[in-house]
Amino acid sequence: MAKTPRSQPLQADAQPLRSRARKPRDPSQPKLPLDPMPARIEPCLALLKPRPPVGPDWTYEVKWDGYRIALHLNNGNVRILTRGGHDWTHRFPGIEDAAKRLGVGTAILDGEAVVLDDEGRPDFGRLQNSLGGRGGKLPAGNAIMFAFDLLYFDGHDIRNMELSSRRFFLESLLRNEEGAIRLSEEVEGDGREIFSAACEHGLEGIIAKNKESTYRSGRLGDWVKVKCVQSDSFIVVGYELSTVARSGIGSILLAARKGNDWIYVGNVGTGFNESSAEYLRKTLDRITRKTPPVRYEGRRRNLVWVQPTLIAEIEYRAWTHDGKLRHASYKGLREVQDSASVYETE
Q1: E-strand spans in 26-159?
Q2: Residues 218, 271 within the same domain
Q3: What is the distance of C-alpha 60 from the center of its chain?
Q4: Is residue 15 one of the residues assigned to a domain?
Q5: How high does pLDDT run on average in the chain?
């Protein structure tokens, strides 16, 4: 997709305007017009829609396929929090180092941690491998952050500013950044054409955002996501033994949430490589159970049922008439700390 010109950032002598790191403020001066820095902010979430909204009120970005993170910078101290509020600073050392060089005293950036493939596209599987798999302890030194919002800047909470104003400051802050923290570029134009181009480039989809919206936590419709290929999180309820497949797993059995219950939505037998299949088998064999956690009326044999605790990210094309996944492919296991939402069916 062709990049559109950015809005002109704050400038002083043709250089981006950046604040210097400040010493801690004197608490005995309560009249200073500063806002307390939030310890954590619940993220604004995108509402899934089948088609992108169009019109002058909307702007568009790439939908990044990784882990949602919030970067907190407070006078040289960096915290990188997952969507669920877990501290993963030690797992993204490259992003941490880049944050210390941003040239601002205090800030909270909202974005996505990703690992890019050889063609510059985000690859969720590579990100998982770099972290050591689900539950792994490895630092992802090759991960980068694509920042798409700025919530707190130089002592001021700016969530009540409209998106276009927040982006103005974000672009100024990240104008020359090409390392481990990068700006998630906006694309102006017809949302339908932008979505089509994203799909042609093999991307997961796009995010549409209302330019005049403030930053509101939750899934309220200010942000809309449209996917080229459906990708959602499902609970793993078992697997099918195989004498020919990698590590003995022919497929894994999946369920979605329906109220307070689980409902079987089919199986997936593609997307594994040798290492991921071996890891899955070892992990699943630790949580086996004798009875199925879902109502199962299929004809598959040699099934091993497991406790419904593991969450898998699954890519699929459509649903069958009886509520099963079509053309599904395994992408990886979600971390508990990522607080991924399991797909809910009506």
Answers
A1: 47-48, 58-62, 67-74, 77-82, 106-114, 144-153, 156-157
A2: no
A3: 16
A4: no
A5: 86
Instruction: Write the CA distances from 128 to 44, 123, 140, integer angstroms.
Output: 24, 9, 9
Domain boundary among 227, 248, 274: 227
129 and 239 part of one domain: no
Looking at the DSSP bridge assignments, the partners of residue 11 are: 16
β-pair type (325-326, 318-319): antiparallel
Task: Evaluate whether 334 touches 64 at the Cβ level (below 8 Å).
Answer: no
C-alpha span between 41 and 168 (Å, rounded): 21
Nearest one of 184, 182, 181, 145 to 67, comparing CA atoms:
145
Q: Give Cβ neighbours of residue 173 (< 8 Å, ≥ 6 apart).
A: 16, 18, 102, 103, 104, 107, 150, 153
* Same structural domain, 241 and 207: no
Does residue 10 lie within any of the structural domains? no
201 with 235, same domain?
no
CA distances from 339 to 67, 85, 116, 261, 312 (A): 10, 9, 22, 19, 12
Task: Kindly state whether residue 195 falls inside one of the protein's structural domains.
Answer: yes
pLDDT tens-digit profile of 168-206?
999 999 987 789 999 999 998 999 999 999 999 988 899
> Active-site residues: which are they?
63
Task: Give the type of residue at 87.
Answer: D
When pLDDT is cut at 50, 70 and 90, the band that residue 20 belongs to is very low
Looking at the structure, do residues 47 and 142 belong to the same domain, yes or no? yes
Q: How far apart are CA 295 and CA 9, in angstroms?
A: 57
Length of the chain as a residue count: 346
Res. 236: pLDDT tops 70:
yes
Give the chain's domain count.
2
Copy the structure tokens of residue 16: 């981006």
Q: Which of 227, 254, 277 is the last residue of a domain?
A: 227
pLDDT value of position 138? 64
For the ranges 31-35, 78-82, 151-155, the lowest mean pLDDT is seen at: 31-35
CATH number, domain of 319, equals: 2.40.50.140
pLDDT tens digits for 75-99?
Answer: 999 999 999 899 999 999 999 999 9
| pTM recorded for the entire structure | 0.73
Domain CATH code at residue 141: 3.30.470.30
